[in-house]
Amino acid sequence: MPKALESAFIQQLQDAANQGHVVIIPAPVKPQYAEHTTPLLRTRSGAALATALCLLFALSRSEAQMLAKLMAVDYCTEDELLVAANCGGQKIRPSSLRVIVSGLRKKLEPYSVEIIKLRKLGYGLSGGSRENVCQQLADYDALIAQQVAPKRRTARSSQLELE
Q1: What separation, in Å, do the N-terminal and C-terminal C-alpha atoms of the chain show?
Q2: CA 53, 57, 60: angle at the middle one, nearest 5?
Q3: Higher pLDDT, 31 or 86
Q4: Whole-model pTM?
């Protein structure tokens, strides 16, 4: 944009703002602790998230579906976790839910992910557990991206193939 048009456009915006025709929304301020925030994760369906959790933490399908459910909400009742564990045609009995949660806790302990029992509510992830899982998923995504990245063909490699 030419300078003359740019300055005229800026003047029009300022006049419109002064008259109340335009609302200026300031840019969001980045926190100073930005290096400690949870990395952005790629969008996954529930099934894809459960699969990634299975691969990442060596979980069974039921355990991964339960963890995915806990990641999506603040807390889950035992009935909601049972529904998540039974997703995909599996037959988990209500009496075995606590055993599965216990096994899940043991598998997640090395990753500083803690599942806590919320009295009269159900189960939830404690403190920074959700962020720890997100960080592990981000590292997993970065690793997969490195392995899958296609090799670029250079003019030299194309010339060698023709010879």
Answers
A1: 49
A2: 70
A3: 86
A4: 0.64
